[in-house]
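Need a sequence for this fold. Nothing fancy.
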């Protein structure tokens, strides 16, 4: 009987993945075990937890997590399972509370996870032995990453690579202007594959194509630079905005800046800014779009007037939660400094269109008649790079 490793090893080079890698329940469980439970997962932003007691929750595979700002102002990730009988302590998506109180039997935990109160447990009970279990938590330029593994991978290489790119956008001065949560009826790998190419964009994303231009030189694989891109990079870097492509040796993360279409400076219907308060202090009006991804959970876009963070979380073999956050300057006021419809219209449309594409692909790859086809050597190097990364990681970890 074939297993996940067999399916991976049967994949032909520069071809899409086999049917089972998108559909099979055991493959999905292996994805959770060998990737989602071992890697750093983007959870949210520090400015979403403005005051002590602020929290939000997320589900990383089988692990419910609560991320909370403590009374000492430190942000922690805690396993959201009561140490009594396992009830989720924080059952809301987000909120604010002086203490973390389990709704089942009122066990009460400090914001750092220490158990403060447990009624009717008898004189032999020791509260110090029943604190909420902690998950690993790291922060880089407001991005909160969580890892549920016993031993987390080294976060420092990513921190050192991404910090110079994000820092000039001053995300510490940001807030979430709008958040979208979309459930796509497709495997998480199909969602990321769709993100990693714009081969489909001309026919599927008319709103996005008013401003976005895919640059094949920054797909994440070795290709020759083009003079126009080099000139754009030079202009941005001379203004203090790191722009040239940086790619993780193993292919897990990448940062680069790309120019937008002619006369466009933002993701709007007319390509002009959606927000009057800028995020950067470079002095350049046209800084294009800074793009970064970090597998398996996030891709991001930074412009002069706003930024977007995207997070995906698998909900099942054929279901993925896609969360998009539009970030603006914290002092920007709706209906004064920005119009919400103008700010969100392009990516709300694009996300909806991508959902249709992912769901249509899931329906197709689920067919027993599906046969993986070849990737375009011109337009699909990015999606091939993602599939290569996935296969290499799984082959290393599945014994």
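Here you go.
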């Amino acid at each position: 009987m074939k297993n996940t490793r067999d399916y991976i090893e049967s994949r032909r080079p520069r071809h899409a993945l086999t049917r089972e890698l998108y559909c099979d329940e055991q493959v999905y469980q292996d994805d959770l075990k060998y990737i989602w439970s071992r890697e750093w997962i983007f959870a949210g932003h520090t400015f979403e937890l403005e005051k002590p007691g602020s929290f939000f929750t997320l589900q990383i595979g089988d692990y419910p997590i609560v991320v909370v700002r403590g009374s000492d102002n430190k942000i922690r990730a805690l396993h959201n399972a009561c140490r009594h009988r396992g009830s989720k302590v924080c059952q809301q998506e987000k909120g604010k509370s002086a203490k973390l109180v389990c709704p089942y039997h009122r066990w009460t935990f400090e914001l750092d996870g220490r158990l403060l109160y447990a009624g009717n447990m008898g004189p032999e009970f020791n509260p110090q032995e029943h604190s909420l279990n902690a998950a690993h938590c790291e922060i880089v330029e407001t991005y909160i990453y969580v890892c549920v593994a016993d031993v987390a991978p080294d976060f420092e290489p990513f921190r050192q690579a991404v910090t110079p790119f994000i820092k000039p956008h001053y995300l510490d001065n940001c807030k979430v202007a709008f958040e979208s949560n979309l459930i796509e009826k497709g495997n998480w790998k199909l969602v990321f594959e769709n993100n990693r190419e714009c081969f489909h964009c001309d026919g599927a994303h008319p709103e996005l194509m008013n401003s976005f231009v895919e640059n094949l030189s920054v797909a994440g694989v070795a290709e020759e630079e083009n003079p126009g891109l080099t000139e754009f990079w030079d202009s941005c870097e001379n203004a203090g905005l790191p722009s040239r492509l940086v790619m993780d040796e193993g292919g897990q993360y990448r940062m680069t800046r790309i120019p937008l279409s002619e006369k466009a400076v933002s993701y709007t219907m007319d390509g002009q800014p959606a927000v009057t308060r800028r995020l950067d202090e470079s002095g350049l009006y046209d800084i294009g779009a800074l793009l970064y991804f970090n597998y398996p959970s996030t891709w991001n876009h930074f412009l002069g007037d706003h930024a977007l963070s995207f997070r995906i979380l698998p909900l099942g073999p054929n279901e993925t939660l896609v969360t998009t956050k539009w970030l603006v300057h914290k002092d920007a006021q709706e209906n004064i400094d920005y119009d919400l419809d103008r700010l969100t219209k392009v990516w709300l449309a694009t996300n909806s269109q991508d959902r249709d594409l992912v769901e249509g692909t899931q329906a197709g790859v689920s067919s027993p008649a599906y046969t993986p086809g070849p990737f375009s050597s011109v337009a699909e190097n990015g999606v091939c790079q993602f599939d290569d990364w996935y296969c290499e990681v799984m082959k290393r970890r599945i014994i």
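For context: The chain is about 25% helix and 25% strand.
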